Description:
The structure holds 2 protein chains of 2 kinds.
Chain A: H1 3-17, E1 29-36, E2 43-51, H2 52-59, E3 68-70, H3 71-76, H4 78-86, E4 89-93, E5 96-97, E6 99-110, E7 113-123, E8 131-136, E9 147-154, E10 157-163, E11 169-173, H5 179-196, H6 198-208, E12 213-217, H7 224-235, E13 248-252, H8 256-282, H9 290-309, H10 317-336, H11 346-375, H12 379-406, H13 413-416
Parallel strand pairs in A: 1-9
Antiparallel strand pairs in A: 1-2, 2-7, 4-5, 4-8, 6-7, 8-11, 9-10, 12-13
Chain B: H1 11-38, E1 55-58, H2 65-79, H3 84-101, H4 105-118, H5 125-137, H6 141-154, H7 159-172, H8 175-189, H9 191-202, H10 208-218, H11 227-244, H12 247-260, H13 265-277, H14 281-288, H15 295-308, H16 312-330, H17 336-345, H18 350-361, H19 367-379, H20 387-396, H21 404-417, H22 419-424, H23 434-438
Helix pairs in contact in B: 1-16, 2-3, 3-4, 3-5, 4-5, 5-6, 5-7, 6-7, 7-8, 7-9, 8-9, 9-10, 10-11, 11-12, 12-13, 13-14, 13-15, 14-15, 15-16, 17-18, 17-19, 18-19, 19-21
Amino acid sequence: xxxxxxxxxxxxxAAGWMxxxxxxHKESDAYLTLRADPANNHVMHGQWDxxxxxxxxxxxxxxxxxxxxxxxxxxxRRVAIEQYAMARMEVKGDGITCDMxxxxxxxxxxxxxxxxxxxxDAVCDKNIPSKLTVVYRLMYDLDPYHRGIVTIHSGDKIAGxxxxxxxxxxxxxxxxxxxxxxFKSFMVDxxxxxxxxxxxxxxxxxxxxxxxxxxxxxGTNGGAWRKSAAVxxxxxxxxxxxxxxxxxxxxxxxxxxxxxxxxxxxVSAFSLSHSITLSLAVLGYVHVPSRLVExxxxxxxxxxxxxxxxxxxxxxxxLIAFAxxxxxxxxxxSALSGLQLPTGAMVASLGGFSIGxxxxxxxxxxxxxxxxxxxxxxxxxxxxxxxWVSILIIVIALGWLVQRAFDILIPGFSAILPA
Amino acid sequence: xxxICRGNVCETLTRRDNYLGASRLFxxxxxxxxxxxxxxxxxxxxxxxxxxxxxxxxxxxxxDPRVRQFDQLRADFAQHPNNGKKAVALAQAYxxxxxxxxxxxxxxxxxxxxxxFMAQPAPPIPVLxxxxxxxxxRHFFQASRDELTLIxxxxxxxxxxxxxxxxxxxxxxxxxxxxxxxxxLTNSGxxxxxxxxTAALRGLDGHIAQAYALLSYVQDPGPExxxxxxxxxxxxxxxxxxxxxxFDLADDHFKNALQMTPGDNFLLADYGEFLIDRGRAEAAVExxxxxxxxxxxxxxxxxxxxxxxxxxxxSDMAEMDARFRSMDQRGDHVFMREEASYLLHVEHxxxxxxxxxxxxxxxxxxxxxVRVYLEAALAANDPVAAKPALDFIADTHLADVAIDPLVxxxxxxxxxxxxxxxxxxVPSIARPSPTGxxx
Lengths: 419, 439
């Protein structure tokens, strides 16, 4: 018998004898456990045990190749292990990919050896996942018989699945969809979006400032002095000093209710128009580049404040609110974009966010109106608030407009105000 | 446990419970609890090792020539990822290493190497052969057999396919196919292959003395033959001699074989089982004491310790059970015969052992499978359940000193216990099928 045949027989020998006895070690497994945080509905705490033997095969752990993996060698490869593993698994809450944040590294002993333990948090930012999906691809290219043994704990519920290359996805229902909690969560987001969105506040304030005043025109039949004063005023030279314009003057409203009505009209018009574009944009019917939207918002703030200095519109300020509300709605939508909103939670999230925006806005109005009404007769209000503050807003909005439209940074400007 | 499942997701976890029934689940829970108590000293929770120098895991060192060989093959293949020959060479090295060490991970790694080539419309025959070999090694015998049949349609004289098919057919108990394959193997593979094949088959169909004689013709394949080949034949002769009742002879062959391939995982398990059978439990403990990472060796150890009533037996039983549970978690069941034997001889749970032996019977029918099936049926006092195995023995004339007395006892028990059932030959199918009920 010649050598090649024997070598060949050696291989079939491997083939031939094996089935009489099972292989002595089990195949590759990893154990993935996710636990819902009882205190925070957005977070799942994860523990992922991956065999050191598998990690050594995949990315190399035994740095000195002496056949013994030490804790020091495992620690040295922590980042590499986390990057390798995290890129091969996704946790999704209602279809939205949750953010994976490694929180620690440990060791666990299983029946077939030592495993690296990746501790992590899956942060499902916006929504409270009712249906959790795990997409598992670890080792799929290195060992098709690798299995991810997934266990999910949520309250007193336990669910499990065995995942592998031919069956990489498991969906598990954690709870009944908590639409109301989701709604609340998005509502709070909406409120904060308004309160922290200084451009929206400035726009609204600019429109509301004159609401407690009535503009009275003083006529244009004055002499040359009045004309030159008007030119001077237009040039801005006297504007800061002049108690009031020569061509018109502001008078406090006589009673509260007309002012209140004015405010309601402005706010309602703004709400109506921004709700329309917010919905259209979130539902995907409208898409406007964010640079255009942001520039438009800056322009709207400038126009609203300019109207206080060069009043073109007084009785129908709500028209400005309505017209520019469309562009602000697109701005709100960008806060929700980046989240692929699950269809089931669409109503809850969009509705919650819109109502949050309204609440945030009404809160500003409720704080503003009584104060403004109370101060309306003072020179402080008529000069400092209405005129100087409006001029300041114009300057800021102009800065924003330049930055956003031309995508440049004005030195020092961003230090004062967010771009 | 309030599991919520979608589609087939939970099936793998619950399948086991379905076919083993609630009592099994209860047993598992009790044992799991016991395991928790016993191995509390071990780390059940993740921990931070005491220091950077703590050794956590042994892995194949580069001082092992086999590791260096497949490292080299791996580098070679990495440079030529489209070269099927290099892929097959690497996959074969992995399979070989996996077989010698018993580490099943290497089968998966081999499978991954040939994966891209398997995806081609008509994979090359060497690739298909590797694939069929892996399938067979993972006890997917039918899939392996179908694949080998296709290979032989394309290349009727393929020696490796013929030998593998013969092996699969023997494990499945299809002796007619095994015989055809052995004959074809003699024609295309030469006398050595044909004779070994035939000898193996003769050992299964009542001509066991002939089998031993045939093996003794080929037991010295010449000085240039690799030790593994000689060890293989010595192992076959040991098994055959043991089944003939020539125990001293068998012992000699086992020792020869282990001298040629020390530490070979399958030889250790085989010899260990033999020693336990012969009442030499101390020798069995001694044999596998240093190979406890291997599940087959550990099973021998636990069985022997239990037999000797050693104090360590209790904690090792818990450990063995934990190993079986972690195999269950995967949803693969390649260890059914071993677990049935464990349940019967160590846990003394004949009913569950019989359930598992019946499961195993659907997949494989080698003498050891026959034996544990009969033993379990006898211990469970359920001779009717043994009918498929008894029929198989009648059909194939399987003879074995360990099996023959079992057959007599079961036949006697069947006649005395329920002559009607025996006469009417109630098919075991009439019993509620454990797998059928749950799926």
